[in-house]
Amino acid sequence: MGSNLQINKEIEKYINDNSLKLHPVQREIIKYNENLGEIKKMQISISQCHFLHLIIKIYNPTNILELGTFTGLSTLTMGLAMNKNAFLTAIDKNKDTSNIAKNFFIKAKLEKKINLIVRNANESIKDLIKNKKIYDLIFIDADKENYINYFENSLKLLNKSGLIITDNVLWYGDVVDKNKNDKLTKIIREFNSFVYNDHRVESLILPLGDGLSVCRKI
Ligand SMILES: C[S@@+](CC[C@H](N)C(=O)[O-])C[C@H]1O[C@@H](n2cnc3c(N)ncnc32)[C@H](O)[C@@H]1O
After folding, report:
1. Is the separation of the CB atoms in 201 and 164 below 8 Å?
2. Which helix (H) or strand (E) holds 14?
3. What is the pLDDT, as a whole number, of residue 99?
4. CB under 6 Å to ligand 1: residues?
5. Gap between the Cα atoms of 36 and 100, Å rounded
6. Which terminus of the chain is more solvent-facing, meaning fewer CB atoms within 10 Å of its CB: N or C?
């Protein structure tokens, strides 16, 4: 079996310093989040930004859906990478962080390409299904307790061969720690095993940031 390199902070910095350059507004969001204390860890990592950028450039989705926007880093990353005819719908229930995110979208001149719906994702996603909306790429990064729910509903909203990308599936590495059996760790393990056994998709887990699950609808 091939062995993988252990990524420490130094290597991570080296990778980030030698990968794609961030847009000034992406950098501004990261700087803003740094002053938020503990909750700053909610944002996606820089390596995940680069991955989302590249996959959108290669795959060229026209309709993107995001569940869980926070202050807008993942949303803006995808918005900046998508083509000029593409559209992104983002959903987050938090009014305050959504207002902050919207200001960043305006700064990046993307406010016409991104619609941020401030609402509970569970309710919102049901409406999208009812209205027969279809997406090429769905990024799941909202409450972990609903991950399986979001995944199931995303499959109903996804084009054939569409992608579902889900964040935090390695949960700080706790998924492999037998001593960690708290509610959220168990939920993430359950999600990973659900996706792995789901024959409607082919999936892989990438060790980027806190772990990204990438699924293609078959
Ligand atoms: C991990 S953060 C998202 C981070 C974001 N993708 C980024 O790159 O900065 C999770 C977000 O999900 C939102 N959220 C949690 N539960 C939700 C729900 N039931 N419906 C909608 N949004 C929810 C929170 O308000 C929070 O902003």
Report:
1. yes
2. helix 9-17
3. 98
4. 42-44, 68-71, 73-74, 91-94, 97, 120-122, 141-143
5. 12
6. N
Q: Which residue has the tokens 């507004």?
A: 25
Which domains, from first to last, does the chain contain?
9-164 (3.40.50.150)
- Give nearest CA residue, ligand 1 atom 14: 142
Residue bearing tokens 């847009």: 23
What spacing in Å lies between the alpha carbon of 97 and ligand 1's midpoint? 9
Q: What is the mean pLDDT of residues 74-96?
A: 98
Per DSSP, the residues of 26-72 read HHHHHHHHHTTGGGGGGSPPHHHHHHHHHHHHHH--SEEEEE--TTS
User: For 53-83, what is each residue's pLDDT tens digit?
Assistant: 999 999 999 999 999 999 999 999 999 999 9
Question: What would the two tokens of residue 60 be?
Answer: 């060229």
pLDDT over 90 (residue 5)? no
Measured from the Cα of 119, ligand 1's closest atom is 21
Determine the residue of 92, 144, 147, 168 to mutate for testing ligand 1's pocket, defined as the one with the most ligand atoms within 8 A of the Cβ atom. 92
The residue whose two tokens read 């803006």 is: 76
Q: Which residue has the tokens 């559209």?
A: 87
